[in-house]
Amino acid sequence: MISLIFFLGSAVLLGFTQAHGGVNNYTVGDTWYRGYNPDNAPEDQDGMPWQVNRRWNSINPIPDPSVLSMACNDPGTAAVASIPIEAGQDISAIYYFWLHAIGPMVAWLAPCDGSCNSPSFNASAASWFKIGQRGLLSGGVVEGTWFQREFQDWSGAPNIWTETIPKNLKPGEYLIRHEIISLHIPNAPQFYMQCANLRVTGKGNKLPGKKYLGTLPGVWRMDREFLRCFIVILKMGYCLRKETLLIRGL
Length: 250
What we know:
Layout: E1 2-3, H1 4-8, E2 25-28, E3 31-34, E4 83-86, E5 90-95, E6 105-111, E7 129-134, E8 136-138, E9 145-146, H2 147-151, E10 159-164, E11 172-182, E12 190-201, H3 224-233
Parallel strand pairs: 4-12
Antiparallel strand pairs: 1-3, 2-3, 2-5, 5-10, 6-7, 6-11, 8-9, 11-12
């Protein structure tokens, strides 16, 4: 972990100026946590005591929502470190020069039922629930303003996506998953996701009920009905199947 002031002043950590992209780093309060960078050598990152991000090898999207890498990208191997955070605190995912502007953004949590690094924990079989979702703010699907567009910053400053850990969440180890779904190509949504380890503390004792849970892969589909749902219903918010409802009041 490194001071946020140092982080914001360090040009060498910007990276990812190409198209596509992913989460570069995370912040909680004034503390910065370094994420995985697919442009750097894996041997300099894998197993490092500071690494909170599950490994992802490419800035390119996952085009097929039915593959196992939908959970935490490819290959999605476990990280060693965890971000300590108290239930009710904010966590920010930091991106740079995010290119795309159309489509929703969804933040997920999954309890690891022990250590997120355990060989017995499988992210693609975990029970995921939404803690945040950002969509169309105004106008139409193509010409309107999505949060994804508002989130962009081409000045070189960080693109910051902040969500709150539910205040009554049961303490324990969780994966947090930030997902951007880009809809700029008709009938071909692009899925960008990264996962990081969290160690949640606090006095809460709650987990979401079954109606809020989903699996990844399993939530999104590529059939015509669901693609239409993305295009039409997203004008009013989100295509919400019952197992992917946004939790409220937790």
